[in-house]
């Protein structure tokens, strides 16, 4: 395609299939949250870019479960190359949540991958207070990343 040519979805799909880089990983262990932002085990994707200035879309879906009745707020975010992104997936309980209460929340971020090479995406999570009252459930909680030429 040349500059100014009209692009059709079939063209975009073909180009994306040739140049897109992606990965997906689920959290592999039920992980109790603390008040310290922590990497979720298994939820790590590394994409190796071959072009500079690629754009990446990263998404997380997080299944929080209450393990001790609490009104604490659990939240998760995406880290790209060691930098926590500002968008987060937060569950606002609005009161005390009973033991076993669950909420699945999600967020995404779009980032520029300026350099050629490995780029690491991680899911990280914490609780606003009261360590150990929320956990991230394994299997359901997932990180996915897709990188495309800019």
Describe this structure in words.
The chain is mainly beta and 150 residues long. The protein has a single domain (22-149), classed as Jelly Rolls. Helices cover 7% and strands 55% of the residues. The protein contains 1 helix and 10 strands, in the order H-E-E-E-E-E-E-E-E-E-E. It has one helix at residues 9-19; strands at 21-26, 31-32, 38-49, 54-66, 74-80, 83-90, 102-113, 117-127, 134-136, 142-149. Strand 5 and strand 6 form a beta hairpin. The two termini are 15 Å apart. The model has no long low-confidence stretch (mean pLDDT 90).
What are the key terms here?
1 helix, mainly beta, 6-stranded antiparallel sheet, elongated, Jelly Rolls, single chain, 150 residues
Let me know the largest β-sheet: 6 strands, antiparallel
**Unreliable spans:** none
- Give the helix proportion (percent range): under 10%
Fraction in beta strands: over 45%
**Element-by-element helix/strand order:** HEEEEEEEEEE
Structural class comes to mainly beta
Query: What count of helical segments does DSSP give?
Result: 1
Average pLDDT works out at: 90
Topology diagram in text:
Blueprint: H1 9-19, E1 21-26, E2 31-32, E3 38-49, E4 54-66, E5 74-80, E6 83-90, E7 102-113, E8 117-127, E9 134-136, E10 142-149
């Amino acid at each position: 395609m040349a500059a100014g040519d009209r692009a059709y979805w079939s063209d975009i799909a073909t180009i994306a299939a040739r140049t897109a880089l992606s990965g997906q990983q689920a959290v592999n262990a039920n992980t109790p949250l603390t008040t310290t932002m922590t990497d979720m085990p298994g939820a790590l994707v590394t994409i190796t870019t071959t072009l500079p200035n690629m754009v990446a879309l990263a998404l997380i879906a997080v299944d929080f479960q209450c393990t001790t009745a609490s009104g604490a707020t659990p939240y998760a975010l995406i880290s790209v190359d060691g930098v926590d992104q500002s968008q987060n997936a937060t569950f606002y309980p609005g009161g005390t949540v009973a033991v076993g209460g669950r909420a699945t929340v999600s967020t995404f971020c779009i980032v520029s991958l300026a350099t050629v090479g490995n780029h690491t995406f991680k899911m990280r999570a914490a609780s606003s207070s009261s360590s150990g009252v929320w956990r991230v459930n394994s299997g359901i909680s997932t990180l996915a990343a897709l990188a495309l030429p800019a």
